[in-house]
Predict the 3D structure of the following.
Amino acid sequence: MMNHSLLVPFLAFAAAAQQAAPPAFDVASVKVSDPNPPQPAAVLTGGGSVRSVGVARGCRRPNPGTFTCTNATLKMVLMQAYDVKAYQIEGPAWIDSDRYDVMAKVPEGVSPDLVPAMLQQLLAERFKVVAHKETKPLAAYELTVAKGGPRMKEVDAAEVAAFNAAQEARRLGNPPATPPPAPGGRRSVSDMPLGSIGMSFSSNGARTQRGKINMTQLTNMLTNEVSRPVIDKTDLKGTYEIELSYLADQSSASAGALRALGPPPGASAGSDPARLQADAEAPIATIFQAVQQTLGLKLEAKKLPIDVVVVDSANKVPTEN
């Protein structure tokens, strides 16, 4: 009698767990990337800035019904599956070097919010990923408001509301009409679309990043530059016009990407007056000084508890499609 009474709630629990399981992708293609993909090219634009042109790498949602990764590391896919940053994933070194192409079709009517759980399921099936979550103390930076307060201009609330409405429409598969492209060349921060970040470089190592971004986007940008987690403790909720110029740390992720591009074709600082002028006018400050002097914020090194995903095991070669 006691065994029967215990069996009933167990079966009810099992049924509920089965119902809570996320749906699977309609179809999914997972394969090792071409070892010799097209390489990005460095292009010198007006004003001495350098941009790269080439095939995009990484994971993206071209539309709500499709999830795509091109020449992406397993870590990049894991970031999408667990909604974490790169520094929050630990595992064997190859998950940050070996590259894969993933294309998965989301079933019609399935909420985009379920895609991460569906990705976790796909990774478990194709890569045999076994992972767990834990909290670890990591070397990080805390971003706070400096003495004197923030020095950033807040974007108009109506512009932010229109942008958020357009983003939600895209998420639900009803993208608004695409506006005509803006004229080329260097634009002021006020003319830039919300959420975009523009970057320009000078031959003396100075770098400028500009855009209309919120604090989450700013901390992501700073994390790439300082190669450590940056945790927002400013309590600032708005979207701001950011223009930050500083001397690039040659060990940062974006500096490494620029070095990999090499000099732009035919570029020569000695033969380009516009670039020479941009270099001469570029401020020389560390990113820590620039954040405080320009934005009115402060980066402080600390050991902070960070949630991480630890990959216990995974296969380098995914199972066939």
